[in-house]
Write a structure and sequence with these properties.
Blueprint: E1 7-10, H1 16-27, E2 31-36, H2 39-49, E3 54-58, H3 66-78, E4 83-86, H4 101-129, E5 132-136, H5 149-172, E6 176-182, H6 188-196, H7 220-231, E7 242-245
Parallel strand pairs: 1-2, 1-4, 2-3, 4-5, 5-6, 6-7
Length: 265
């Protein structure tokens, strides 16, 4: 039990990577706050992992006071807080022509500012427990795809915040801050996006080797397995680190010759 008796907030955990992290955390002995926008899906997650192990909070993470309400719920239910996972995010297509100020502000509010506010709200309790923050970024933080401009900007900013606070908070508060950058992951949302693009539901079964050298893309459970290390005491004093979770190097890789591929991760 690598997370025995730890109390963890996982934002965006009604589906996808967040759901997998929450379920894996409970299997390792933690109790979790499930958060998201989809009440029916959230209720199902709580049912799957056991009502004694989870509480559900449905709210847009960018709402004023939402971060404090998540922290208050954890403290009210279990009296402590050991870790937060900033996973909730808007993954929306945009480029230089379609990204206006309002759109960019909205993406930044959810993907970058809301995680910062949750860290702020949780910090007094994480200081008490000498806890951990795990930010869920994206390999798009390094530069991003042509049609993921605003999203890539937001994840790049999150990565810089992780490195900055990872240094500051371990020194001043004993709180570790780290980040994982998943690559292409087979989530429910990814399947929906590809369906909206007109692809068959079996699109992921035959991918170009350029994007799936191993013959498939990542599973949410594999991201969750990696997350447990950063949330547990096994990672010791390590802080301010960003780890890419993809099956090929992001920097120095040859660009594709065919730009009409399926990717758009």
């Amino acid at each position: 039990m690598r997370l025995l008796d730890k109390i963890i907030i996982v934002t965006g955990s009604t589906m996808g990577i967040g759901k997998s992290i929450a379920k894996k955390a409970v299997s390792e002995g933690a109790k979790v706050i499930i958060h998201g926008l989809e009440e029916e899906l959230g209720t199902q997650v709580v049912s799957e992992i056991g009502e004694e192990n989870a509480r559900l909070h449905i709210e847009d993470i960018s709402n004023e006071g939402a971060a404090q309400r998540l922290v208050d719920l954890a403290i009210k239910q279990w009296g402590r807080l050991d870790a937060i996972v900033n996973n909730a995010a808007l993954v929306v297509p945009s480029n230089i022509s379609t990204t206006d100020k309002a759109f960019l502000n909205r993406v930044l509010e959810v993907n970058t500012i809301a995680p910062f506010q949750l860290i702020q709200a949780a910090l007094p309790f994480l200081t008490e427990s000498r806890g951990a923050v795990l930010n869920i970024g994206s390999v798009n933080a390094w530069s991003g795809e042509p049609n993921l401009l605003a999203y890539s900007i937001s994840k790049g900013a999150l990565m810089t915040m992780t490195r900055n606070l990872g240094d500051t908070l371990i020194r001043e508060n004993g709180v570790r801050v780290n980040q994982i950058n998943p690559g292409w992951v087979l989530t429910e949302k990814e399947i929906e996006r590809k369906r909206a693009h007109g692809l068959a539901d079996s699109w992921y079964e035959d991918l170009p080797a350029l994007y799936a050298p191993a013959g498939r893309i990542l599973w949410p459970e594999e991201i969750a397995a990696a997350a447990i290390y950063w949330l547990s005491d096994e990672s010791g004093p390590i802080s301010g680190q960003v780890m890419d979770l993809e099956q090929y190097p992001m920097i120095g890789r040859n660009a594709p010759k065919d730009t009409s591929t399926i990717a758009n991760k």
